[in-house]
Design goal:
alpha+beta, Immunoglobulin-like
């Protein structure tokens, strides 16, 4: 649903369909059916003020419904200790304990060694239940400061400016609240065209840990602040310095002699996740060496060649200088966009075609500027692709507990994504569970637990205005949109799975609704904590949960097939709601008009208003569903997101 006056009828319809998620009159949420909590590691083993202890395990709970602690029981600096340190939820397998002054004050002393057992203790706030992991033997050392020791460093070879120089040793600071380990470089630089050797440094360069929890390995970039951009030979010393967050500075006890040959900047390769082509919003990764960026300079790329539109007999000359995103000394990334020289020379939204020519890097630092040697380069401008990040929020996972399906989360996600890919088959759209890194422009659609608007909506597109022709590739259906709130519409968007209880005759949250159907309860009652037994790892002793090809046998009485049916129904209902809300963000329904839903009520039309879509259609049970885009909608989607795939053979209803 999109936030505009014409769409308010849909909000009202869904609000009538799905209750606001309030505790029931009998005392709120049912029992949680919590799974076991496990603890596997606590790192780093050596900590200083400002360190973050990373607690790894499984079964952790979202911070909105729980408080977690790291319990330490054993000896500290020779005396007995029982410590409870507050932990912050990061993910269901990771907690963080930040050693702030307040937390350090909980220790018997700010420095010393702990030897004993660690446990994760979690208080589940809705029911006041407490769960704890099995004790794990750990050793932790708390220090006030660290002195760095350099054991090894790359001592020679040919390098580019900004190449990563690996170092090994002990006592490295890990950044953040701890402070930083710095590589101090000093010596003499003999430029290739210079008669004299120029004294350099000392120059401090931050060392980046190879592993964020490892104090023994890291690297630092050979910054242009050391020798500039010129080719030549550097010889000198490298040693380490710890700059603590407190302001205390400690130099290392060793240095190393180094000699590097600085070679000219160049581009060696370029490509994308699609091969040698990219569409609007997609990155082209440009690899080579000697790139600079950030506060230390600028890298641009110079294109010279010919662009030939698909189907054209000949191309047109192209001479462009583009500004890519700096990643590091070995990579820059250029995103295809409509705002720079390429976007004004070519309509990258509609003009698919190919470029053939050369590419060269131009790097600038302070008063220096160097143009690299051109390299042959060819790439294609591809038709627009919409990438959608389907983001499963922690509240979605926690709300699965109300259905008793927390342990089936991964299977439900797979079913949701399968529904999305089926509904948008032969349309140039891609749904991903992980955040895209190969596209700068992508949409985000949140799947959450309760509706934070308090309206009990199943789904709500809170993007601003009707995006006919999908001009925006970066919509976010989720979070809060202040513009929609200013217009008097609900601000929070996404898909809210607790609102599915509107179909229950005895909902775990909210009140019974007119759309309640015993079929819903026959599917989920065997697993709900208040009516059955939540699915757990113990159920897997009977075998694996089958993956259904259809819902024809649902509901059933056999436990594993009951679980398979619950996955099918939950995934289908969430998936079709996501497809519907995503359709809104693409300009549906009525793409050439002002309506946001199809007129009337017809079977299996995906963009019908919420009240017109039955439980059986959404769940794909008893011969109903799946809902599909109607004829005009499908043709519109094929036009704005074209592919070479043939049209599907699905029989589609009229709009």
């Amino acid at each position: 649903m999109a936030p505009r006056a014409a769409g308010w009828l849909f909000v009202a319809a869904i609000a009538a369909l799905s209750p606001a998620c309030q505790p029931d009159a009998e005392g709120g949420r049912p029992q949680s059916g919590l799974e076991g909590v496990t603890l596997s590691r606590v790192d780093p083993g050596l900590a200083v003020p400002g360190s973050v202890l990373v607690v790894a395990g499984d079964g952790f709970l979202d911070g909105s419904v729980s408080q977690a602690w790291l319990q330490l029981t054993g000896s500290f600096a020779g005396g007995q200790a029982s410590l409870q340190l507050p932990a912050t939820f990061v993910d269901f397998d990771e907690l963080h304990v930040e050693l702030t002054p307040d937390v350090l004050a909980l220790l018997p002393s700010p420095t010393g060694s702990f030897v004993g057992n660690a446990q994760v203790v979690i208080d589940y706030l809705p029911t006041s239940e407490r769960v704890a992991s099995t004790p794990l033997a750990v050793e932790l050392e708390f220090a006030a400061t660290l002195a760095p020791h350099l054991a090894d460093v790359q001592q020679g070879g040919a390098i580019y400016v900004n190449d990563a120089i690996p170092v090994e040793g002990e006592g490295f600071l890990l950044g953040g609240g701890e402070g930083h380990t710095m590589a101090v470089v000093e010596g003499c630089f003999q430029a290739m065209d210079a008669a004299d050797c120029t004294q350099v440094g000392p120059i401090e360069i931050p060392v980046e840990p190879t592993d964020p929890l490892d104090r023994t390995r890291g690297s630092f970039p050979f910054s242009p602040r050391i020798v500039g951009l010129s080719s030549g030979t550097f010889s000198g010393l490298v040693y380490l310095r710890n700059a603590h967050q407190s302001g205390e500075v400690i130099d290392g006890d060793a240095d190393a002699e180094v000699e590097y040959e600085l070679i000219p900047t160049e581009i060696t390769a370029a490509g994308t996740s699609s091969g040698s082509g990219a569409s609007l919003g997609q990155y082209i990764d440009i690899d080579g060496g000697g790139f600079v960026g950030g506060e230390e300079g600028l890298t641009t790329v110079v294109l010279s060649g010919t662009f030939t539109p698909d189907g054209a007999p000949e191309g047109a000359p192209v001479e462009l200088e583009l500004v890519p995103e700096f990643v590091d000394g070995r990579r820059v990334r250029y995103v295809i966009n409509e705002d720079d020289g390429l976007g004004t020379a070519i309509d990258v939204r509609v003009d698919a075609g190919s470029f053939d020519g050369t590419i060269a890097p131009r790097v600038a630092f302070e008063s220096e500027e160097v143009l690299g040697v051109p390299t042959p380069f060819a790439f294609a401008i591809l038709p627009v692709r919409q990438v959608v990040w389907v983001r499963f929020l922690p509240s979605y996972v926690e709300s699965l507990r109300l259905f008793g399906l927390r342990a089936l989360d991964s299977m439900i996600r797979e079913r949701i994504l399968a529904v999305l890919r089926r509904d948008y088959e032969s349309i140039n759209i891609e749904f991903r569970e992980e955040e895209p890194t190969d596209f700068a422009l992508f949409a985000t659609l949140d799947i959450a637990g309760p509706d934070p608007n308090g309206l009990g909506l199943l789904g709500y597109d809170n993007t601003n205005g009707k995006d006919t022709n999908n001009e925006r590739l970066f919509d976010h259906i989720g979070g809060v949109n202040a513009l929609t709130q200013e217009d008097g519409f609900p601000g929070f968007g996404g898909v809210f799975i607790e609102s599915l209880f509107a179909f229950s005759t005895h909902p775990a949250v909210g009140k019974k609704q007119d759309v309640a159907d015993p079929l819903f309860d026959r599917v989920f009652d065997p697993f709900r904590p208040d009516t059955g037994t939540p699915f757990s790892s113990a159920d897997l002793s009977m075998g694996a949960v089958p993956v259904l090809a259809n819902g024809g046998g649902c509901p059933t009485d056999e436990r594993l097939y009951q679980a398979a049916c619950a996955v099918w129904v939950m995934g289908s209902m969430i998936g079709t709601t996501v497809s519907h809300e995503n359709g809104h963000s693409l300009g549906l329904a009525d793409p050439l008009g002002t309506r946001f839903h199809n007129l009337g009520d017809a079977p299996n039309r995906l963009m019908d208003a919420g009240g017109a879509r039955t439980l059986r259609e959404r769940a794909e049970l008893e011969g109903e569903g799946p809902a599909v885009f109607c004829v005009d909608e499908y043709e519109y989607l094929r036009e704005i997101l074209p592919t070479s795939d043939p049209e599907t053979s699905i029989e589609r209803p009229y709009c």
